[in-house]
Amino acid sequence: MPEETPVLDALAAITAVSIVGSELPAREHVIARLAALIAVDAPTASYLLNTGTAVEVGITLEDVQSLLVAVAPIVGTPRVVSASAKIAQALGLAVALVEEELEEELEDAATED
After folding, report:
1. What tens digit of pLDDT does each residue of 38-76 get?
2. Distance CA 2, CA 11 (A)
3. Does residue 1 form part of some domain?
């Protein structure tokens, strides 16, 4: 039975509407979203929710590092340091989730054999 995720579903819908309603190319749209997250000192979960979309549109680690450098004079060192730590945490969580999913798939495949 699939898990119900009404909050995540709502956030995904809001994100989809903002991308469709924007005239920015998807990659630039995600860069703007990441810059906004840095500016408001968003929590780790916010970066995690945007990780999949960022990867899909080709955002690289180097892009994120360049973005942090670009916004530093505006948002200040404390926000950039905070964002850096939260982005690293979000990436670690994303990797852990993928590993867990792969392990479950391997276990399911072994059970079927």
Report:
1. 999 999 999 998 888 899 999 999 999 999 999 999 999
2. 18
3. no
Look at the chain and report how many structural domains it folds into. Answer: 1
Predicted TM-score of the model (pTM): 0.79
Under DSSP, the state recorded for 24 is: S
CATH code, domain with 59 = 1.20.1290
Distances (CA, A) of 76 to 7, 35, 66, 94: 31, 13, 15, 27
CB atoms closer than 10 angstroms to residue 76: 12
For residue 111, how many C-alpha atoms fall within 13 Å in the half-sphere facing its CB? 6
Domain that holds residue 57: 6-112
113, burial (CB in 10 Å: exposed 0-12, middle 13-18, buried 19+): exposed
CA gap 109, 50 in Å, rounded: 30
State pLDDT tens for residues 23-39: 999 899 999 999 999 99
Outline where 1-113 has alpha helix (H): 6-21, 26-39, 44-56, 61-75, 77-112
